[in-house]
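Q&A log
Question type: sequence-to-structure
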Amino acid sequence: MPTPKSPTPETSTPASAAPAGGASTGTAFTRAIGLATIIGMGALAVFGLFISPADVRQSDSVRILYIHVGTVWVAYVAFAVTALSSAAYLWKRTTSLTWDRFAGASAEIGVLFMALTLLAGSLWGRLSWGKFWVWDARVTSTAFMFITYIGYLAVRGLGGSHQQRARRSAVVALLAVLEIPLVHFSVKLWRGLHQDSSVADRTHVTLHGLMLFSLFVALVAFSLLYVWLLMHRQRVLAMQDALDDKGLDYALQQRRSEGDA
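Response status: OK
Response body:
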């Protein structure tokens, strides 16, 4: 009777590739932010859908305001953080890519939330103006900024070393951030259909107290979501850089060490 063959080195599982035995890659801070985000989003759903009153003119369609303002707030903050992180990388003149990864992660989040802003705005425009899209100054400039940061992400994907990626994308980020004040003040610079700020311009728009508080809840909830996404996304980018430089085992070990710490 033939004896069973022992496993060859090709078929056996190396110890380094074995499961980590329940090792977590999360940290206490990210778990706390995640829990706070869930609570904040739950509070926003309650206030935005049930407690906040309907608008006199726009009725229940005004509830899109909380999503529309929350997403554009995150996009503005994300693009500003991208610019600041890029400036920090250029100013430090170091081989560390931490600032560059924060810039890239924040830009990706900003592009996502800017897309949600355009989507929510088009739905609200359909209900308010009768059209999904109008060539309004605010709407058009927002779409242009969205395309600009898609270009920024494309620049990050070009070939070259990590340091070359960081330098060229930092320059683009410092130029692209100049579009934020242009978009924000486009309503004042050019007349259009888009209304001015619902909070800053209280002479033309008056928000009910509960509507204003619900808007505050939206800003807090979306800010927490941004922080949570930023922490996790920059870690993924760090793993990708480590994978390119030193291989998969090293990247996984670095990530698990951060979770254990």
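Response note: Confidence is low (pLDDT under 50) at residues 4-22.
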